[in-house]
Amino acid sequence: MKEKTIKKHVAERPHVVFLIADDHRGEAIGAFGTEDVQTPVLDSLVSSGTACRNTHIFGALTGAVCAPSRACVHTGIPLFRATIGKDMTNREHSSVIRSDVRLMPQTMRDAGYHSHAVGKWHNDKASLARSFEGGDKLHFHGMSDHTQVPVYDYDPTGLYPKEQEYMEHTFSTELFTNAAVNFIEDYEEKQPFFLYVAYTAPHDPRTAPEPYASMYEKSDITLPPNFMREHPFDTGDMVVRDEKLAGWPRDEDEIRQHMADYYAMISHLDTQIGRVIEALKTKGIYDNTLIVYTADHGLAVGQHGLMGKQNLYEHSVRIPLIFHGPGVPQGKQVHALASNIDIFPTVAGLCEVDLPVETEGISLHPIFSGDSVGERGIVGSVYRDLQRMVTDGRWKLIRYYRSPITFTGTERIQLFDLQDDPWETQDLSAEPQYAEHIERLASELAAWMHASSDILQDKPVIPVPV
Length: 466
What we know:
β7, α5 and β8 (134-139) form a beta-alpha-beta unit. The N and C termini lie far apart (50 Å). Strands 8-7-11-1-12-14-2-15 form an eight-stranded mixed beta sheet, sandwiched between helices. By secondary structure, it is an alpha/beta fold. It is globular, with a radius of gyration of 21 Å. Helix content is 24%, strand content 20%. It folds into two domains: 10-379, Alkaline Phosphatase, subunit A, CATH 3.40.720.10; 385-451, Arylsulfatase, C-terminal domain. Belongs to the sulfatase family.
């Protein structure tokens, strides 16, 4: 595979700490001003780094959005070309990354970085084995109780047989942070490191330890403007596991408690991230470390009458993305459109590491400095054979299908003006004056689906609005 000559000497490159959470929606950070949640550590990273506020996940072909979304982050490639299991008729999990695709940690390792993994790896074991030369407390499941975490020690053979798995009872966020801190404290190599830390928080069960469990009173929680007791129509996955975490119709007090528990998990995670940062400072390498914080997807937690991430509303497809360190402007919140396939190219760009030729995402680094050349005009997202979305940053079209496999879902569209209605409460698709936006976005969606090798591309994009 032909690549450009590496420009910067390995020893001069920054270390990288890549932090990824599970279920952390894009707005649930105090510095962004729209949530009650307390996140002083992440707020500090925002104030002294750059936050990409309009980053969307590419999507998933199953209800377990975590694995395919992480595959997109790891590879910088659209879901349909990054994974095995892209045929929706066989109900594949889309967790296995193609063996001929190079991943972000693999690329960093090949460029001279010491790659080390901690925590959740919801993709195949072979992709981890070719990416990391070390690791600790490796979790190959989608979730677990936070005080009963099945993990592996790093296996240089890459096999990870079941009999080597063991149970840890330290709270997951602290368990993974302990492993990350130990790695930083013990690191003595001359080459820079790429430390990948994947948390299972704030994913349910939302059982934060004290004092965080008591930090938020449900009576103090403000319900979002798009809270609904019931979603107005069948999205196609109305009884998936996540949706069963609260009763139907949604009760205001119950949702407030879910939100309080969700915020408690995030605040606890924030404190643990602070421990990683302190370890970098104590080691004397904080100023020469690129810190990246993101999540695999968002979460509804009562918005639109939904609980999970199996939908294409902003609360579920928009994720936090924060960069901090060498080459990153301070105190910027960028609103240019981005996809999670752009994360890998941005990390590589900041470290002056050349990308594999098959990578399709774009580096956001030039956009940090105000260069609009190469900005995305639209981003899209997929969910199973049930939903497709496209947005140009202001106008957003969601296309719903009725699945020929499960016979669930609704043939219809929604149109939102995100500038005037960021909570997506007013569907404008039936208003004649907005027909031109529907037609334009429908064309953009069809082109995006075709370019992404979406297997639904041959289906009509515009149904009759309901």
